[in-house]
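pinned: reference chain
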Amino acid sequence: HFFPTCSCSVLRFFLIIDKRRRSKPVFKTNSELIATINKFRGFLANADTMAVKYSGPPSSIDFNTAKSKIRSKDLVDNLEKFYSSASPPAETYEWSAEAQAEKEALYDDS
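pinned: its structure tokens
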């Protein structure tokens, strides 16, 4: 998934730009460009759902079920020990207001 833990402000920004630009004639004449834009719009429609889905901690892993289905019990035991001892920090990204303003100025100038 694309940016599963980031704020969707970046994606919302591109949606706003998309709304501003879609009335331009270039978007109505190039079928390849139209297909690409529609694919991107589909991604944006799903972005908020992904952000909510991945905003919380992951669900716990059922190692007992894995042990019953996998031949190598040692492998599952080692993975369980690693999982219980590891606590990686969450990776997040917040798009700064300055960067948003800079990109907005670039799009307005084009």
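why pinned: The two ends are 30 Å apart (CA to CA). Residues 27 and 34 are 6 Å apart (CA to CA).
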